[in-house]
């Protein structure tokens, strides 16, 4: 049975121009012609086209496809193995680019005006979940403190971020040390760490009264995405977010004026 160029184009989901190109390149020439001189493809031609399209889908160039199809000595498996390695390399590269893009988008949500390289250099393993950042913006955007915090974050230089993140990293080390040493969450050491964090927020972002600090700590305990902004997952321990919450609220009581 014979098929016209238009019919084959419809069967294969490719353009007539592509079929003409394959013919001109000597990759797929129709086996017959109609009395009027039109190209006609046989079942064997369609089988060859199916092979061509298979290899094209895998990204093989036309000259390599021609070698595979025309050379009886060509080992198609060797070609496929080589292409498999190449595709895996491309996938790994694209995955790295995807991770860079996702991290850049997440950090961008914080309003930090740094280049992507500077952001990675400054923030390291701290993660910024885009969904949480969006929800937090919607939740707190009406509050003056949130607006001021975002404005100050956007205004910080790379040096500012490096300084405040170094302070924060030191605070994290002492926090986890207190937790690992089983210091009580409502004890002096834990409350001092809570107060230090509250003052850190005030110094670098926005005035943070104890009630506001309490709401922030509640988020830490309720949402792992929020706590990941403070302690990277690799440094977290089970119960650490709740520990911080208790310390923050205990410190709020301690800071309250005596009746």
TrEMBL record:
Listed CDD domains: HTH_TipAL-Mta
Keyword Coiled coil listed: yes
Entry keyword set: Activator, Coiled coil, DNA-binding, Transcription, Transcription regulation
Ranges of residues in domain HTH merR-type: 1-71
Coiled coil stretches, renumbered: 77-104
Protein name: MerR family transcriptional regulator
């Amino acid at each position: 049975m014979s098929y016209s160029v238009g019919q084959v184009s419809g069967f294969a989901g490719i353009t007539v121009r592509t079929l003409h190109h394959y013919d001109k390149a000597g990759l797929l020439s129709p086996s017959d012609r109609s009395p009027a001189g039109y190209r006609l493809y046989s079942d064997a031609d369609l089988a060859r086209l199916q092979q061509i399209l298979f290899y094209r889908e895998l990204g093989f160039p036309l000259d390599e496809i021609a070698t595979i199809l025309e050379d009886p000595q060509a080992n198609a498996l060797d070609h496929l193995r080589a292409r498999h390695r190449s595709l895996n390399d491309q996938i790994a590269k694209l995955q790295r680019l995807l991770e860079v893009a996702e991290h850049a988008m997440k950090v961008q949500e914080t309003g930090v005006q740094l280049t992507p390289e500077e952001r990675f250099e400054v923030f390291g393993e701290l993660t910024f979940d885009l969904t949480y950042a969006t929800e937090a913006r919607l939740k707190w955007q009406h509050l003056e403190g949130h607006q001021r915090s975002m404005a100050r974050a956007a205004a910080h230089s790379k040096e500012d971020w490096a300084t405040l993140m170094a302070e924060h990293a030191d605070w994290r080390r002492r926090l986890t040390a207190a937790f690992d040493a089983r210091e009580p969450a409502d004890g002096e050491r834990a409350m001092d760490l809570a107060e230090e964090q509250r003052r850190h927020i005030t110094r670098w972002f926005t005035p943070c009264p104890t009630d506001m600090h309490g709401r922030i700590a509640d988020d830490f305990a309720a949402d792992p995405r929020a706590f990941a902004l403070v302690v990277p997952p690799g440094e977290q321990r089970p119960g650490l977010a709740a520990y911080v919450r208790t310390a923050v609220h205990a410190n709020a009581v301690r800071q309250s004026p005596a009746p």
